[in-house]
Amino acid sequence: MSQHFDAIVIGTGQAGPSLAARFAAAGMTVAIIERHKFGGTCVNTGCIPTKTLVASAYAAHVARRGAEYGFANGGVRVDMKRVKGRKDEVSRRSNRGVEQWLRGLRNCTVIQGHARFQSSRTVVVNDQVLEADKIFINVGGRASVPAIPGIHNVPFLNNSSMMDVDFLPEHLVVVGGSYVGLEFAQMYRRFGSEVTIVEMGPRLIGREDEDISKAVREILEAEGIRIRLNAKCISLAKHDSGVGVVMECREGPPEVFGSHVLLAVGRIPNTSDLGLDRAGVATDNRGYIIVDDQLQTNVPDIWALGDCNGRGAFTHTSYNDYEIVADNLFNADHRRVSDRIQAYALYIDPPLGRCGMTDAEIRKSGRGALVAKYPMSRVSRAYEKGETQGFIKICVDAETKQILGAAILGTGGDEVIHVLLHVMYAKAPYTVIQRAMHIHPTVAEYLPTVLSKLEPFA
Ligand SMILES: Cc1cc2nc3c(=O)[nH]c(=O)nc-3n(C[C@H](O)[C@H](O)[C@H](O)COP(=O)(O)OP(=O)(O)OC[C@H]3O[C@@H](n4cnc5c(N)ncnc54)[C@H](O)[C@@H]3O)c2cc1C
């Protein structure tokens, strides 16, 4: 006998719980299923714990620079057990909050267990068959384990197992020079580890423009992080001191020895054990569920939201997926994924805030564009704070004067980028920013100055 619901939500990531709450508030019955920790990646092994750790690392870094600010601190020693304890507490608060919220919802049944499709309308969990008119998949993803020779002969860490680390690795080798890897690299350097980043590509964060990759590299190297690029053929081997990472590089010694290795080389969707074939739900060749512009799968009444649909890999893209689905279902507001503007941040210090297109994408589009770049060393808020690394870059369409893309690598960059993002959503010309009165002293007050320097792409 199956139990019938108006809706089933699989996974309690960043889209599922809000969607369940929306159904429940509309007086419909909903079952939400979670196989591991409530809140998913962001809450337990992603954004929230890493940004909490980044905050500890930042505090240690500023304390070490005490003399520059006029105080003595008698030496900074990081207590990793307490750093982890603080992180656990912040994470636990959110994890509990999600669980309590869901359990407190009228019309919502919370089930713990692994969900698998039995058909396009039924899901099995703990031998219980659930049936629903609508099914929403929010199963997220996990760290991928690449086929590196020797990988199964050595211990390695990933973003999940890093959450249990309550000691200071003597030398952390981070394989992967992209967003996740760089955040861990900088925080562990600031905690006191030796850190080496090993990246297969010719530069860090290869999806960004070259000037950003270069500036980020300089920021990390200035803190003593060693960076090995073009590390094409990597293999791992046990070594007396921990793990040896052997690589074919254009420069530098052929092997790096670390006490610990963190693999941060991409993510894969949690779709292989969902029984998608039984429901007839199509995936691409990397396992991402194929969805249309309103996040419906190829099977009627089944939607996929969040990282598992390959249309975004952020908490805010997952939450935005929820808004798109909910507005289409409940408000007859036909929102689409293609209406959203790319936006994200990299939480090294100083952070990188990004929105819209990169220079490379603009060039490829062939449109006439203008660009302005301004160093943070000339922003008064930055030098008052003693945080002058980075730059602001804004690109606009030469004809419409609308902002095409921007990068703010600098103090407050993750926040200030929203000024530009909102103007982009409003489809307003950049000149509105120049007519606004800004608060002094802020980074945002410099945006009109930056925009006054627009010139054609070189
Ligand atoms: C180290 C790291 C740092 C990050 N930092 C940021 C950041 O600063 N900002 C940002 O925007 N994003 C960040 N992200 C990305 C962000 O965490 C994810 O994009 C976000 O969590 C969206 O996930 P989701 O909603 O797709 O699902 P998830 O949060 O992954 O949740 C999916 C849930 O589904 C459950 N599940 C899976 N399969 C089943 C099943 N068969 N049955 C039942 N339950 C199942 C899982 O247990 C999980 O709880 C970071 C990621 C990592 C790894």
Structural account:
- Helices cover about 30% and strands about 25% of the residues.
- The chain has helices at about 15-25, 40-45, 45-65, 65-70, 80-105, 180-190, 210-220, 275-280, 315-330, 360-365, 380-385, 415-425, 430-435, 445-450; strands at about 1-10, 30-35, 110, 115, 120-125, 130-135, 140-145, 170-175, 195-200, 225-230, 235-240, 240-245, 255-260, 260-265, 265-270, 300-305, 345, 350-355, 370-375, 390-395, 405-410, 455.
- The protein is globular, with a radius of gyration of 24 Å.
- The strands form five sheets. Strands 1, 2, 3, 4, 5, 6 and 16 form a seven-stranded mixed sheet that branches. Strands 17-18-21-20-19-22 form a six-stranded antiparallel sheet, with helices on both faces.
- It has 14 helices and 22 strands.
- The mean pLDDT is about 95.
- The chain is an alpha/beta fold and about 450 residues long.
- A hairpin with a 5-residue loop joins strand 17 (about 345) and strand 18 (about 350-355).
- The structure holds flavin-adenine dinucleotide.
